[in-house]
Design goal:
- With 161 residues, the chain is an alpha+beta fold.
- The protein contains five helices and seven strands; from the N terminus they run E-H-H-E-E-E-E-H-E-H-E-H.
- The radius of gyration is 20 Å and the shape is elongated.
Length: 161
């Protein structure tokens, strides 16, 4: 049907995730630096700076690896989403179990022109794993429409309304 190769993620996705993650790291390291200065532990500043630089490198590598490993596939009977680097996760969603599909953006998505496609189910899994994030507006609409069509076909086959 359609995979991440045919309807790709936007290349801005890793940069958006990197910047989003770095905000937290900057806050943490600012607190550590202020604490070190207040306690007059100046010798620890170099160590904090080295760790911060290492975290920047690690975060950049991780976000790019996450982007490269991200996979989804719209199959005839189910939607398959795989993501993750260190602890990869795979979720398979049969269309007859899906309840809704919607697209949205957070503040960083707006800055980068990215959209997320969310799939709702009656389980907790839908909140955690059931989304394809970081696609263009055009691709988000294509994905939403394709998945909604599959849901309608599955409900028609099972006689559900």
């Amino acid at each position: 049907m359609a995979t991440v190769n045919e309807i790709p993620l936007d290349p801005a996705k890793p940069t958006k995730r990197f910047i989003n993650s770095m905000i937290g790291w900057i806050i943490l390291f600012t607190i550590l630096i202020v604490g070190t200065l207040l306690l007059q532990l100046g010798s620890f500043l170099i160590g904090i700076a080295v760790v911060f630089v290492l975290m920047i490198g690690w975060q950049w590598w991780y976000e790019n690896a996450y982007y490269k490993n991200y996979f989804y596939d719209i199959q005839p009977e189910f939607l398959n989403i795989k993501k993750g680097v260190i602890t990869p996760r795979e979720a398979i969603f049969p269309y007859e179990k899906l309840q809704d599909v919607y697209v949205d953006q957070d503040i960083f998505d707006r800055m980068f022109g990215l959209w997320d496609v969310h799939i709702s189910t009656a389980t907790m899994l839908s909140g955690m794993e059931a989304h394809i994030d970081g696609v263009s507006e055009e691709n988000s609409k294509k994905l939403r429409d394709m998945i909604l069509t599959k849901i309608k076909e599955a409900k028609r086959k099972t006689g559900a309304s």
